[in-house]
Every structure is written in structure tokens, then in C-alpha cells.
Design goal:
2 domains, alpha+beta, 8 strands, 10 helices, eight-stranded antiparallel sheet, 290 residues, Multidrug-efflux Transporter 1 Regulator Bmrr, Chain A, Arc Repressor Mutant, subunit A
Length: 290
């Protein structure tokens, strides 16, 4: 049995490996080199990694590369499949298509036309423990803004379907272009404690006027101004909870602050697929009473 200190040190060593993989998906990433990063024996690293993550190191790397490719297929229709395949580290479109179909049950072209996000999410259920984050909290005054909103209601696995609808609205309407308008997400519920069918999340883009009627069902709302605790999250949105939980669990009880009656929300400072996952930056806002 490991002591708590040994377990924490062991986790830190694996976190170094996972962080390195996420930041260097375009490199060769040999098992021998990855074992050296955290000072593990190369003879045992395969088994240690599989035990810690729940899949082999080679499969984990392939899945992250395919995840990056999936976002490009779904949200960057102008990108050719051959370019996406090469960007994902595959030698040719055939090997990319074979790996993609074997993993998700759809070819890249089929996924581009109609992505099955629920089945897709099933491939990314690793057993990686929560990575411990030290968060820097600022108290800021947020100015009220008007936003166009695509209301997602249902399982978190289907959020990307709603994102696709919101992107389609942005392109068709010409309103709230992501190049020049801020993008937000409003988290009404905690996905860890909410029944999937009851989960609510708003996908938002800043607008100056009321949103006209549209086929996607995008509506006008506002994010109210006021005092907020703000934390910046670096990296994948998949791991954003690692910056949220310390805010609630550690900072809030010691701060003496009281929460305002408005949900937690996110300001996405950059977005996929233009930005690699490990370079994403997201400001998390926790509304506070005055």
C-alpha cells in the first residue's frame, strides 16, 4: 500500500506525462521517452500507464489525436480530410479512415455529415484521477452584456450537437461572428450531480441587438453585471472541472463571500478547432453578492 505522500508523488509523475502528451501530439511520442519524463522504468511503463489511465499509452495517444481530428471534421468544413489526417499524425487518408471507423463506427466523411457524439464520448471515458490544480482567484466587476443563446437541454454528450447548431446560426445570420464577438457558456447544472435529461447549458455569443427569429431557435438573453470571482483555466474544456472544484471546495469557504443568484459561466478566450486543446484559455466566473 502506498502512503498518501507516495500516492501524490506518483500522481504528479503521471500528470507530467499526460501534460506532455497533450502538448506534443504532433511529435512521435515514443514510450521510452515518455517513461523518462516521469522517471519510470521503460520496462514497466506500459503496465503502469494502462493501470493508471485505463488504456494503453499508444491507444491513449491515438484517441487524443482522433479527438483533435473530430473537432476539425465537425466544426471546420473547409478543411480537407487529407489535411486533417496529416495533422493528426497519420501517414495517409486510408490509415486515418481505418482508425477513425474502427474507433467511432463512422468514417470521417460520415462523422462530418452527422456526428454521433454520444458514441464518440464513450471512447473517452478514462479513469484518470482528478488532477490537482492551484487556482489564482481574482475579484472582478463584470459588465452586463446581451448574448445570443442556443439552449442545450439534455445529456452533456450531446452538447456538441447544440454547438454545431449555434455555429450554423452564426454563419447564416452573420451576427456574433466568433472572430470579433466574445463567446460564453452558462452552466446551470453540475453534470456530475444532474440527471442527463435534466442538464442545462447555454451556448452564447455576444450581440448588440435582439436576435431575430431563426430556424436554429437561438434566442436573446443577458449575462448580468456584478462582482465575480474569476479563475483562468488553461487547457482542454474536458478538464475544466479541475479548475472549478478548487474554487468551490477551497476558495469559497475561506473567502467569506456569498454567491449571487446566477449560474457559473465561462468566457472562452479562444476556441477549437483553430486552437489546439492544450492551448485553450477559459475564464470561469462565479457570481458573488455585492
Amino acid at each position: 500500500m502506498m502512503s498518501d505522500t507516495q500516492a501524490k508523488n506518483y500522481a504528479k509523475r503521471f500528470e507530467k506525462v499526460l501534460d506532455y502528451i497533450e502538448s506534443n501530439l504532433d511529435e512521435s511520442l515514443s514510450t521510452e521517452y515518455l517513461s523518462q519524463i516521469a522517471n519510470f522504468s521503460k520496462f514497466h511503463f506500459h503496465r503502469q500507464f494502462a493501470e493508471y489511465v485505463g488504456t494503453s499509452v499508444g491507444r491513449y495517444i491515438q484517441l487524443l489525436r482522433l479527438r483533435q481530428a473530430s473537432y476539425q471534421l465537425a466544426f471546420s468544413p473547409q478543411n480537407k480530410v487529407i489535411d486533417i489526417a496529416l495533422d493528426a499524425g497519420f501517414e495517409n487518408p486510408e490509415s486515418f479512415t481505418r482508425a477513425f471507423r474502427n474507433t467511432f463506427g463512422q468514417s470521417p466523411s460520415e462523422f462530418r455529415r452527422q456526428p454521433d457524439w454520444e458514441s464518440w464520448h464513450e471512447r473517452y471515458r478514462f479513469r484518470i484521477p482528478e488532477r490537482k490544480q492551484t487556482v489564482q482567484v481574482e475579484i472582478v466587476d463584470f459588465k452586463s452584456i446581451r448574448v445570443a443563446v442556443m439552449e442545450h437541454r439534455g445529456p452533456t454528450e450531446r452538447v456538441n450537437d447544440s454547438v454545431g447548431q449555434f455555429i450554423a446560426w452564426r454563419k447564416e445570420s452573420g451576427l456574433s461572428p466568433k472572430e470579433s464577438s466574445r463567446s460564453f457558456g452558462i452552466a446551470y447544472d453540475n453534470p456530475d450531480t444532474t440527471e442527463p435529461a435534466e442538464f442545462r447549458f447555454d451556448i452564447c455569443g455576444e450581440v448588440t441587438d435582439e436576435v431575430p427569429l431563426n430556424r436554429q431557435g437561438v434566442v436573446t438573453k443577458s449575462i448580468p453585471g456584478g462582482r465575480c470571482a474569476r479563475v483562468r483555466h488553461y487547457g482542454s474544456h474536458v478538464r475544466i472541472g479541475e479548475s472549478i472544484y478548487p474554487l468551490y471546495r477551497n476558495w469559497l469557504p475561506d473567502s467569506g463571500e456569498e454567491l449571487r443568484d446566477f449560474p457559473l459561466y465561462f468566457h472562452y478566450l479562444n476556441l477549437m478547432p483553430e486552437t489546439p486543446e492544450h492551448e485553450l484559455e477559459t475564464d470561469i466566473y462565479l457570481p458573488l453578492k455585492s
